[in-house]
Design goal:
single chain; 226 residues; alpha+beta; Jelly Rolls; eight-stranded antiparallel sheet; 2 helices; globular; disordered C terminus
Length: 226
């Protein structure tokens, strides 16, 4: 009987998490686990491998908090000449097509097993090159399992994305890149305001939902008996 109760409680928790992931259930969000997720910390502005008064092309560890894949560059815009999404800086993921590739950069962060996390970020298009896609993923660095994958085709305007995923207890990797890519200075996508934070249901939201599901179950049972 005790084991059955534990299984029932676990099933309800899993159901609640599933409903949170598939509906607009309200959550409160804890502090951002990412460093420099909004790209506002740019001590190497103007010191990259290429640039002008409106952009700097950074490589390696030149952008705090982020690792730029070897052989790739990340284009950082300020507000003087080229588009930005918010704040003083945004990233253009074409990476100037340096070396015949586009930007690919990532940040690793710790996760707790079973903890629910919220990923949020903004993106927008700039140029008219519709062939590349914006690709954002969260993977487990130990098992390589994919916890989140968003692949976005060119679409006019500005966009805000939100997603929920469960921690594994391992370090997780958030990666941003073009896929498919052009390998050229395509000016297709801008990104900004990345955050990963523990997501907590607002008080009573899951309880209310589970009560509602329980009542539906009671009605279903009564109908069956009838």
């Amino acid at each position: 009987m005790l084991m059955a109760k534990h299984r029932n409680a676990a099933a309800k928790l899993a159901l609640c998490v599933g409903l949170m992931q598939s509906t607009a259930l309200a959550v409160t969000v804890a502090p951002n686990l990412l460093v420099n997720g909004d790209f506002e910390n740019q001590p190497n502005w103007g010191k990259g491998v290429d640039g002008d008064s409106g952009f700097t092309l950074l490589t390696g560890a030149a952008m705090p908090g982020w690792t730029i894949e070897a052989g790739h560059g990340v284009t950082v815009h300020n507000t003087s000449l080229y588009p930005t999404i918010s704040g003083n800086y945004s990233v253009n993921i074409d990476g100037e097509g340096m070396g015949g590739v586009n930007a690919s950069f990532y940040q690793d962060f710790a996760s707790a097993i079973g903890t629910l996390y919220a990923l949020n970020f903004d993106w927008s298009i700039w140029g008219a090159n519709t062939s590349p896609n914006l690709d954002v993923s969260v993977t487990d660095t130990t098992t390589s399992s994919v916890l989140y994958h968003g692949n976005f085709a060119w679409a006019s305007g500005a966009h805000s994305e939100s997603a929920l995923f469960s921690g594994t207890g391992n370090a997780l990797r958030l990666r941003i890149q073009e896929s498919p890519s052009t390998g050229s200075n395509d000016n297709a996508y801008m990104v900004d305001n990345f955050s990963v934070a523990e997501a907590v249901p607002e008080p009573g939201s899951c309880a209310v939902m589970l009560v509602g599901l329980s009542l539906l179950g009671m009605v279903a049972r009564r109908r069956t008996r009838a």
